[in-house]
Amino acid sequence: MQFDIRRVDDTASTNDDAKEAAAQNAPEGTVLWALQQSAGRGRYGRQWQSPLGNLYFSVVLRPKNNFACYSFIASLAIAEAIRKILPKTNIELKWPNDVLVGGKKISGILLEAADDALIIGIGVNVAVTPENPLYPVTSLALETPIPPTLETLLNDILHSLAVWCATADAQGFAPIRTAWLAQARKGAMRVKLSSGEIHGDFVDLDETGNLRLILADKTIKTVAAGDVFF
Ligand code: BTN
To answer: Which CATH topology does 4-183 take?
Structure first.
């Protein structure tokens, strides 16, 4: 995949910029990168604080199938790039698409559909560690004395994203699922659903990327959307 990186100093949300670009027929691989966002969005319409110093970008993809792959692909790509920077730190993946550094959230991924395009929006805490009322949070600056430049990190994530996208095109979700499971934080968890809260132990991912948990009464619960807490 060829990337065309378009950088601006600030914007409302790079996901909106990517949607607009996609509507104007921007090819797959178009990347909208902003140094700060005034209306950065997270999952469930939450705000994503986007001050200067962190990485904010969105990629236009035009996948033909395997839509469920892409949130896992994005987290694998971020984890790979961060592992290069922090080779000795415990880096895990939290369902559905968080990357945990020493158990703390360092990045966010927001997938949005736009007509026939898929927008992958990625934010990584590099220099700044915005407070989050829901989760413990970290940033690269808190983890290493020499964090990478935003450009190096962006290029590393894009490189890895391209490799995983090619894998998904050729082989579907199976290898993505295997790689994700190998890095997943497992064990006991609490999941907030729109209908309430459940507690269980991680079992695996089903073939479409849903989370499977075993509950105290030994029933298996399949979760399509929710927030996981450890
Ligand atoms: C989350 O964890 O809730 C997802 C956060 C996603 C944030 C990124 S930053 C770049 C892109 N533009 C946005 O408005 N959101 C995503």
So the answer is: BirA Bifunctional Protein; domain 2 (3.30.930)
200 lines ligand 1 (CB under 6 A): no
Each residue's pLDDT tens digit, 148-200 = 999 999 999 999 999 999 999 999 999 999 999 999 999 999 999 999 999 99
Please provide the CATH number assigned to the domain covering 188-229: 2.30.30.100
- Most ligand 1 atoms within 8 A of CB, residue of 35, 56, 94 to mutate: 56
Alpha helical stretches, state H, the chain: 14-23, 69-85, 140-143, 150-171, 174-183
At 38-68, the pLDDT tens digits run 999 999 999 999 999 999 999 999 998 777 7
Q: Is 104 in the pocket of ligand 1 (CB under 6 A)?
A: no
Atom of ligand 1 nearest to the CA of 44: 3
Q: What distance, in Å, lies between the first and last C-alpha atoms of the chain?
A: 36
Q: Is the CB of 40 under 6 A from ligand 1?
A: yes
- The residue ranges of every structural domain in the chain are 4-183, 188-229
- Residue whose CB lies within 8 A of the most ligand 1 atoms, among 15, 55, 106, for a mutation test: 15
Beta-carbon contacts of residue 168 (< 8 Å; ≥ 6 apart): 63, 66, 69, 70, 73, 175, 176
pTM above 0.90, yes or no: yes
